[in-house]
Design brief:
- The chain is of the alpha/beta class and 320 residues long.
- The chain is built from 14 helices and nine strands.
- Strands 5-4-3-6-7-9-8 form a seven-stranded mixed beta sheet, with helices on both faces. The chain has a two-stranded antiparallel sheet with strand order 1-2.
- The longest helix has 21 residues.
- The N and C termini lie far apart (53 Å).
Length: 320
Amino acid sequence: MDNSLSLLAECGDEVVSGIPCVDHARVTSCAIQTFGSKYPAIKRAYEKFGSELRALPMAERTALAQLGQERWSGTALATRQRRELVAVLNTCDSSQIDEIDTLIDLGAGDGRVIEAICSDTALGSRLNSIILVDRDKASLDEATRRLQRYREAGLSIDTRCLDIRDHCVWKGLKAGRTLVLASASLHELDRADKVTVLSRIARNASYLVLVELAADHDAPPTQDMEFRHKAAAFYDALIADAIASLPASQHCSVAGAFLLGELEAMLTHTYAARQNYHLAAEKWRSAILACGFRLIRERLAEILPGGAPTYFLLAQTSPR
């Protein structure tokens, strides 16, 4: 098994439109040997979708991966994360977040997380303004449609089609009274970019809510076998959850193009190109505190059976 993982690491890498892509024709055969009985969900997904994905031109495979990333929000894991986030926000002392009237969602996706906050939390009922930030216009359009009833009720909803690393995200914003939500978005940033974005949040907002799977994937450029097996176990649980909880018509895009594509990228790309840098909970906490925040509340929840726990954190900008 270790030899097959080494073969995977010898494959080349490519990035199209910000989505990591790998040549399935070069990796599928050794991946099946590699993941065998130890990672059955990965093996099943490769065997079921490998040929279909190999037949697609790179641009189409990239589009399918993007669609899969959007559809992932319908998985059992994503649904439970939203419920847990609502519970975390509703157990906060109201005096801690009473002043918030604007929420900025970095990596808004299809808007399901914001919808849960607006409909099920006291914080959501007090908001005057929401700003949705995502690099994908189709996702922003879907989020806007999902939140239309809140706009009709008087909530201001603005969209910014930008990468969350773009400094223009913060253009024209007034500091204070603002909460930034980063749900499953900051793990796509490497160490330097995490510091840059977290520091900008600290300068432009009062509060940060982080939701991330806690897994120590921010490995050095030279990957070792322990890292590769940690990545395989992480994605095996995600793929199993997607297949078990989504309609069969969505399995190829979510389990195949999106999740398998991410796994392949982690196993074959250099550090700079693989675009997934999950951190363990204590490393998320340290990074956030180092960028000028103080911790208000945190929770590590075992939501995904056999998989990584989800880390929830609420922090406030430290007084200057």
